[in-house]
Amino acid sequence: MARILLGVTGGIAAYKSLEFVRLADSAGHSLRVIQTPTSQRFVGAASFEALTGAPVLAGEFEEDPARGTFPGQPAPAHRPLHHLQLVANADLYVIAPASANTIAKLAHGGADNLLTTAALAAKCPLLVAPAMNNHMYEHAATQANLALLRERGVAVVGPDSGRLASRGEHGAGRMAEPAEILAACERLLAQQASGDQVPMRGLRVLVTAGGTREPIDAVRFVGNRSSGRMGVALAAAAQARGAEVTLVAANLAVDAPDGVTVRRVGSAAELGEACRREFPHCDVLVMAAAVADFTPATAAPGKLKKAGRDGLMIELVPAPDVLGGLAAERSAGQTLVGFAAEHGPGMLAYAREKLERKGLDLVVANDVSDPAVGFDSESNEVVVLTRTGEVHVGRAPKTEIADAILDAVMRARGGTEARVEDDAQSAPRQRLRALPTRL
Length: 439
Ligand code: CTP
Hints:
Layout: E1 3-8, H1 14-26, E2 30-35, H2 45-52, E3 56-57, H3 82-89, E4 92-98, H4 100-108, H5 114-121, E5 126-130, H6 134-138, H7 140-151, E6 155-156, E7 160-163, E8 170-174, H8 178-193, E9 204-210, E10 214-215, E11 221-222, H9 229-240, E12 244-250, E13 261-265, H10 268-278, E14 284-287, E15 294-296, E16 316-318, H11 322-328, E17 335-342, H12 347-358, E18 362-367, E19 379-386, E20 390-397, H13 398-414
Parallel strand pairs: 1-2, 1-4, 2-3, 4-5, 5-6, 9-12, 9-14, 12-13, 14-17, 17-18
Antiparallel strand pairs: 7-8, 10-11, 15-16, 18-19, 19-20
Helix pairs in contact: 1-2, 1-8, 3-5, 4-7, 9-13
């Protein structure tokens, strides 16, 4: 079990940090808390002290009765500088809630209170859970600060969208739920324990996301309800693991993650073209986009007029299977992941048939007959099928599902044959029209 240092900044979400402490403590972790003076106007130190069983610190010149130790650790004979000792003893430093002001200070190396001083001195992984008003979160300065932190390897969890603290305000800025923050902590700790904090470093990952639109005329299209959330979560998760990510984005209803290369496309044909260009350079392809199976035989050049028509027949012809086409051209060492949105019983059998027919390494199957998951929803529940078995991932936010899928990808790659060593950075991988990689 780990020693988690929790930094609490000033914001209404500070009350949720008490729940985080309770959950982390129940999970067996030991905790210390640093508060900013402003955060103590929202939640008092006594509450954190009662839950952690350890003193809370807020000022640089305060005496730490525990001498920088965590519950259960023997105290040193001397009196160490507690901002240094606390982070030296911590396995993980979590700042939740992280206000816009603290995020700005973290990004630019500010150290004007105990919380930020400790962050600057921290050698352990840092996780921040932003919480603020939606306009503050969306401000270019905050976005740039978060991007800078991510680039430096700081993990960011949330924020969620929904009702905000000020009455009537809705949007992105709500702190991630305590259980979600704890899950993010557990992932970081697990990565740390495996001695590999960026397990996908050096890998080039191509992700497709969203839903294609097949033009009927200049303004109308045949489309689908995919929002792109699952693909975007996968791109963000792969990037967080150190991969170099390219996202082929088809009509996303959500923002693409910062720091990934984005290729915007509209139709299945455009998506196919972008994928064919990028595929030879990737190690992992995750085909999360909902790509049209059929497309209008012709698209009218202007806008179709209704005058003089009793009805309108649109002839649909099959759209090329992008994933199947790429799989036929795969190189040794490439891992291909397809998605199977299936309806009701028989899901697994259909998904396995898809894995075989398209020559894939993994297929992520979900049951779209359940309205609570899948298309356009925040959560999902999937089964990841591999050539040798399957992993059931229970209902969870798409960010967590993304991590479970990438874990499965990495397990699958762990069993692949040695990669072909032709790695001039952007050179296409050596082509080997052999069987799919062994899993
Ligand atoms: N896909 C693709 N090109 C298409 C259609 C789908 O690359 N024209 C990809 C999807 O991105 C997904 C996988 O293939 O990863 C499975 O898509 P799906 O439409 O479910 O598979 P189909 O083989 O078309 O089967 P179904 O009859 O169930 O639609």
